Amino acid sequence: MPSIGKRIANLAGIILADYPLCNWCLGRQFPSIKGDSNEVKGRAIREEVKVKAKKGSCFICQDSMHSLKENSVKILEQLKDYEFDDFLIGAKLPKDFIEREDSLRAKFKLRGGEAIKSEITREIGKIIASKTGKRVNFHKPDMTILVNLVSGGIDLNPKPLFVYGRYLKMVRGFPQKRRKCRNCRGKGCSECEYTGFSKEQSVEQILAQNLIERFGAKGAKFTWVGGESSESLVLGNGRPFYAEIVKPKLRHTDESEMLEEKESGIILKKIKIIDEIPKRSPNFMVKVSAHIKFDEEIDEEKLYTLKEKLQNSEVKVIPLKKKPFMKKIYEFDVEMINKREAKATFKCDGGLNIKRLISGFYSNVGKDLLEITPNVSEVIGIKADCDAFDILNVEVLNE
Ligand SMILES: [Zn+2]
Ligand SMILES: [Zn+2]
């Protein structure tokens, strides 16, 4: 038992005669006393108080401190589903708890006492740490637990996880990105099961579903390393992507367990947990096979000129509202299919708009109006269009 001086016993007596306090809230007002917890200190002080204490629920916390254990049990129950190495407790208190404690401290000149909120979070933290064997971490913990004493609820907020992966697309006919739900335009409604996204098949949809199941997560947000069109295939080593896993229950995954869903046409070829998504998209090169259609007849000579002009060259990309920039084309080969069709196979810097490299500025494919020069139409002198292209490989520098 901590020893209590006469001065403190007298002062505590004066306070308790008018203000009923629980042991926690009593002990907290006397930081000079040494003891394991404010509750232990409060009990010791109360034993030394000779005057009759006023009865009633605690003036400061309305006996909320009694529910610390109960709240901890609720938290432990919910935590069972989650993987985490460390955690942090946060608390939301009714404003008047703090106001009443402040007014009491001002009235009796009680100085240096801990804030009620720190005591609540610390005490719950101690219980959770001892029951789970996990430690409290103030800097980016795996799990943040918010105890809301206003609503009585508990919110678990696991830190997001980040993954890097690669996918192959073996079937044509669906886009890379999810479309917003047409019904609610992304707000979330019953039609889209409150995801805000259309349920139409897309690479994003299929990968998101795999990641959500894999990590028991609420969602997945993607950062793409380049893109392909609906009618493209993605072959070779696949296209890289990054994803933020929102509210994951699991923080580990079997990185050798791949998605081989033949039906969806998407194969997850690689998955790796990473520390964070890089701020800048990595430099990458793509190998492409593009089908070209010409408005007029072409001949081998024209295709030869095209190959000579574009291999190991640089093209200038001129977006409508942004600064022009250069992209490199490394290898470039083209084969005639018939007098109006050809197949080009080439390797170029990532992020080059393939359809526009072929058509030039004639068509309006892509989001922004954008011109690329030189381009296939321009070099051949005949209007050319790309109706489909496949990604044969994506090489990331410093992967
Ligand atoms: Zn209290
Ligand atoms: Zn919707």
Structural class: alpha+beta
Q: Please count the beta strands (DSSP E, at least 2 residues each).
A: 15
The biggest beta sheet, please? 6 strands, antiparallel
What hetero molecules are bound to the protein chains?
Answer: zinc ion
Strand content: 25-35%
Element-by-element helix/strand order: HHHHEHHEEEEHEEEEEHEEEHEHE
Characteristics:
6-stranded antiparallel β-sheet, alpha+beta, VC0802-like, 5-stranded antiparallel β-sheet, 399 residues, binds zinc ion, Alpha-Beta Plaits, 4 domains
Give the SSE layout.
Layout: H1 6-18, H2 23-28, H3 38-48, H4 68-79, E1 86-92, H5 95-107, H6 116-132, E2 135-136, E3 143-148, E4 154-158, E5 161-169, H7 203-215, E6 219-224, E7 234-246, E8 260-261, E9 266-274, E10 284-294, H8 300-310, E11 313-319, E12 325-338, E13 341-349, H9 354-359, E14 370-373, H10 376-380, E15 384-396
Parallel strand pairs: 1-2, 1-3
Antiparallel strand pairs: 3-4, 5-7, 5-9, 6-7, 8-9, 10-13, 10-15, 11-12, 11-14, 12-13
Helix pairs in contact: 4-6
Bound molecules: zinc ion (2 copies).
